Amino acid sequence: MLNNVMIVLPIVFPFVLAAIIAITKFEKDKERNLFVGTGVIFNFILTVYVFHSVKYGEIHLLKFNNFLDIYLKIDKLGVLFSLLVSILWIFTAFYSMEYMKHEGGENRFFAFFTFTLGITLGIGFSGNLITLYVFYEFLTLATFPLVIHSGTKQALQSGKKYLIYSFGGATLVLLGMLLLFSITNNLNFVPRGILSGIYQDNIKLCLGIYIAMFIGFGVKAALVPFHSWLPAAMVAPTPVSSLLHAVAVVKSGVFALIRMNFFVFGADAVKATKGNVYMSILVGITILLGSLLALNQQNLKKRLAYSTISQLGYIMLGIILLNEEALVGGLLHLINHAVIKITLFFCVGTIMYTTHKTEISQIKGIGKKMPVTMWCFAIASVSLIGIPPTNGFVSKWYLALGGLAEGKALFVAILLLSALLTALYLLPIVAVAFFKKEEGEEVVKIEEAPMKMLVPIVSITVITVLLGLFPNPVLEFIQEIVADLL
């Protein structure tokens, strides 16, 4: 029992960090930065230690009845998600130390930043649906101050939109949970689901619950037509955009969908209700519409935001195809998209920080003055397109195999078309930066970004390349997860 109590530590420790940052008046930025950097690194080490020592333990923190049961549990899917979060949080922390200098309010930012880490890990460690739901709601509240950090009218409007969409989706999830509990008396996460045998007498009710919960969790995963909060949230500082789009919010959305499909319903129940067939329409539209909307954006961050909508559709496709290859591809893309997209946002943030330029037309010739930043952007772009031997290719290959295994050639065609569109909205940015010359008044002195920003960018780019060249360690672990679910 004492050993299992350790499961709580990686969640609680960031809360303690956040409280200390909030109440302490640091005399120098260096002191605060050292505290934050040391804190997130220590939390990563603590997370790894807990996984190693507790293995697959569990603990009930508060249990009033079978419904209201705050229950933490470590399993392989939780390990995968939590390690991804912990690692990318470290890079974002060090990147933010430099970037937030020109945004101001650093203490407030880092307090909510570390607080959000604990909540996101809570989502990863959740042992049942109600625990995940509680952390999921707190995630909205914790990230809201980060979205409205600048305090402008536009930021406040975007924050309001974020809350409305998030709480609207959460209401659907809560409705689904209540109905689900009424027929199962159980909300625990169990591989292959808790509906075994029950769904056969409640097909229509189970279908309604499935659609309500898929859309509810799909809001945070930017499922079309519930996606517009995501581009609006681009008013936030770039490190927040990175968190929203690569690590915390949207990945928590798809993580919750994986839990719902394979640990609550189970593939057999989903197939019986045909809920995945109905949702496949929205997922297909999400993949294509996200790419098409990205093509029309001239603002760098907004182009990446719409790109995220499309790429999240890939992961949701891996979920709803309900076969091993597709789910392997979906989980791989959850990892690969995270490292690629955080690299792209960091690069765009660096351009904005050093040049104050936000539009694609404004970055002519910038590749020669900021070669490290733009080369990292180019490598990440090629990876997102899915050109061999990049990590994006590996995950899309498995998604295509999953589509063919189900006889859904249409989905394979959608993947190929989306890859083409991805090339059309990312490669022109690289071309403008490297091959177009500055003109007239645009010719200004531009230097490469500070090392505090370059080191995280280069480091994650290296990880991106390694995940493409040596995918097997991650791939084998994901295949172990999938083997238990299908």
UniProtKB/TrEMBL annotation:
Keywords: Cell membrane, Membrane, Oxidoreductase, Transmembrane, Transmembrane helix. InterPro entries: ComplexI-like_HydComp, NADH_UbQ_OxRdtase, ND/Mrp_TM, Proton_antipo_N. The keyword Glycosyltransferase does not apply. It is found in: Cell membrane; Membrane. Its main location: membrane. The chain crosses the membrane at residues 6-23, 35-57, 77-97, 109-127, 162-187, 207-230, 242-265, 277-295, 304-322, 334-352, 372-389, 409-432, 453-470. Residues 68-110 form the NADH-Ubiquinone oxidoreductase (complex I) chain 5 N-terminal domain. It is a multi-pass membrane protein. Residues 126-422 form the NADH:quinone oxidoreductase/Mrp antiporter transmembrane domain. It comes from the Bacteria. The keyword Transmembrane helix applies. PANTHER family: HYDROGENASE-4 COMPONENT F (PTHR42682), NADH-UBIQUINONE_PLASTOQUINONE (PTHR42682:SF4). Belongs to the CPA3 antiporters (TC 2.A.63) subunit A family. This is Proton-conducting transporter membrane subunit. The lineage of its organism: Bacteria, Bacillati, Bacillota, Clostridia, Eubacteriales.
